[in-house]
Amino acid sequence: MEFINNMELACGLFKNSHIQVKKAFFGLKKNVIYTLTNSIVKGSYMEYDFTNGKKVAMLLETPWESLEAVLGKVGRPVPAENGMFCLSMCYSQDRKFAAMQLCRYVSFDYVPTCDIRFAEGDEAEILLRPFVK
Q1: Cα(68)–Cα(74) distance, rounded to whole angstroms?
Q2: Mean pLDDT lowest among 16-20, 24-28, 66-70, 127-131
Q3: Is the pLDDT of residue 25 over 90?
Q4: Phi/psi of residue 72, nearest 5 degrees
Q5: How far apart are CA 94 and CA 69, in angstroms?
Q6: Is beta strand 85-92 parallel, antiparallel or unpaired with respect to 97-106?
Q7: Which residue(s) pair with 43 in the sheet?
């Protein structure tokens, strides 16, 4: 579990109109909430080798209508211990919201390879299937 504030996609996530930050536990803790379902948003981070990173990139670039077909053909990407790609993702506990961004390791730093992909409803559930158990 990652702190969402420390993730690469945090700035873009907080600009989303369906995301709200609420203070909890006497203001010492902050919860990120997906307002359409009032579900708490979690953060996660995974690394991938070159081959599996390309699979993740393909899944993030695929239109959601054909996502299940591509997922069936490509298969589930397998995380690596120290990969050249990293996937930052935030998703609601009910899996009705997802935000993902893939970065590539270049010159001792991770650089985004694409814009943040936001998904809601059925699209989010399909997009999260290969990444969240």
Answers
A1: 10
A2: 24-28
A3: no
A4: -65, -35
A5: 23
A6: antiparallel
A7: 90
pTM value is: 0.87
Which residue's structure tokens are 């708490």?
40
CA–CA gap between residue 98 and residue 91 (Å, rounded): 4
Q: Find, among 125, 114, 117, 122, the residue nearest to 89 by Cα.
A: 117
The answer to whether residues 33 and 40 touch, using CB atoms and an 8 Å cutoff, is: yes
Residue % of the chain over a pLDDT of 90? 65
What does the pLDDT look like over 61-102, one tens digit per residue? 999 889 889 988 988 999 998 889 999 999 999 999 999 999
CB neighbour burial string for 38-60, b if at least 16 within 10 angstroms, e if fewer: ebebebbebbbbeebbebbbebb
DSSP 51: H
